[in-house]
Amino acid sequence: MKIAVVGTGYVGLVTGTCLAEVGIHVTCIDIDQKKIDGLKNGIMPIYEPGLEEMVVRNFQKGKLNFSTSLKDTIAGCDVAFIAVGTPPGEDGSADLKYVLGVAKEIGEHMTDYLVVVTKSTVPVGTANLVRSTLETALQNRKVNLEFDVASNPEFLKEGAAVDDFLKPDRIVIGVSSTRAADVLKKLYKPFVLNGHPIIAMDIPSAEMTKYAANAMLATKISFMNDIANLCEIMGADVNMVRKGIGSDPRIGNKFIYPGIGYGGSCFPKDVKALIQTAYENGYHMGVLKAVEEVNDKQKSVLFEKVMRHFDGNLKGKTFAMWGLSFKPKTDDMREAPSLVIIEKLLAQGATVKVHDPIAMKEAKHILGDKVVFCESQELAISSADALLIVTEWSDYRSPDLKELKASLINAVVFDGRNIFDATEMREHGFTYYGIGIN
């Protein structure tokens, strides 16, 4: 099979590379010449464990190619994936101009039957817009070519995306014809030899499935954070509560870890888009509105603990921050809680010294010289008034507590991810603040 993947962002690059890994001929297309040139030379536009090696290997084998020209690539393709961005508008709705722009270009240059697949996260009804865009482009060319539009939402976790793609829990395809279903089932056959299913459904249901999945996970996070805040008031330990409820198979132990809110490229954007879609169709998503509200407030919880401890006076104080990315194993800073906390600390006249194992370069693009970037976590804590744990990187889980205490002016730790044991920290003489514990 021959595949085109339009867009070399997170979803497009992982999709194209993993398809090439099983022997499919893939060309990834992007209008950014610098990005394409970089990929040909093994320079990754994103950080994702295992991806760089796989890109280089398959490019050298000739299975994975990169181009800026959809026109020169589309001929002879069996499937074209649209994996471009759908940034949120001011009202939270997904902006489809890039998706429909690609659909138009595909219609202008396709030469034979083609399955056009929306891989981007798109609102219900997008496939119909893609279909009409393709039809208009073909009519303008005065050609009559058959095609199918399909939806194939991704369920990749940043930091584990390669494994998620190669060994999926399930593959969802939204199709409107048996022909399209057969093409996609053939394409994905190498990935379901582990017995996990390809779930075929109608296109609107597939489009909704992606939003519903992310909304459910975001709901679990906000619910647990709400419970954590109440635990602090009532004198309960949220870690014990989490274990107690997580053992119930109806609830499960995933996504019930309290913290300082979710971020990233998916949850915030998708929750907003689903709320807006409902609003446009006369329905109020009460639960999701609350999920969003709780998450927005949770990003300030750690800062509020800092303010209370220092009696509201942070001017002239220096804070060390371990972790910048919104989660471990990624350099993604989109909607990261660290950005909210940093801005609030700076507004109070504090100095912030930061460290992150991977996200420093990306953070510098966003923060510039507002903070002090430290090449090691040890440099960050040196002569700081307190330490804030913001991202639960494994690098931070087992520090030398004697060294940590000696480096800080005040032995105070604000743990936004509960990676330390409160009892142990206090036994070592630290003033320790976690989330949902006393």
Task: Outline the structure in words.
The structure is a single chain. This protein is an alpha/beta fold and 438 residues long. It has three domains: 2-201, Rossmann fold (3-Layer(aba) Sandwich); 211-297, N-(1-d-carboxylethyl)-l-norvaline Dehydrogenase, domain 2; 299-433, NAD(P)-binding Rossmann-like Domain (Rossmann fold), CATH 3.40.50. Helices cover 44% and strands 13% of the residues. It has 17 helices and 14 strands. Strands 3-2-1-4-5-6 form a six-stranded parallel sheet, with helices on both faces. It has a six-stranded parallel sheet with strand order 11-10-9-12-13-14. The protein has a two-stranded parallel sheet with strand order 7-8. Helix 1 (10-21) crosses helix 3, helix 4 runs parallel beside helix 5 (126-141) and helix 10 (267-280) runs antiparallel to helix 11 (286-298). The longest helix is centred in the middle third of the chain and has 32 residues, at 203-234. It is elongated and about 75 Å long.
Give a brief rundown of this model:
With 438 residues, the protein is α/β, with parallel strands linked by helices. The protein has helices at residues 10-21, 33-40, 51-61, 97-109, 126-141, 161-166, 178-188, 203-234, 238-246, 267-280, 286-298, 301-309, 337-347, 360-367, 377-381, 401-407, 422-427, and strands at 2-6, 25-29, 64-67, 79-82, 114-118, 147-151, 171-174, 198-201, 318-322, 351-355, 372-373, 386-389, 412-415, 431-433.
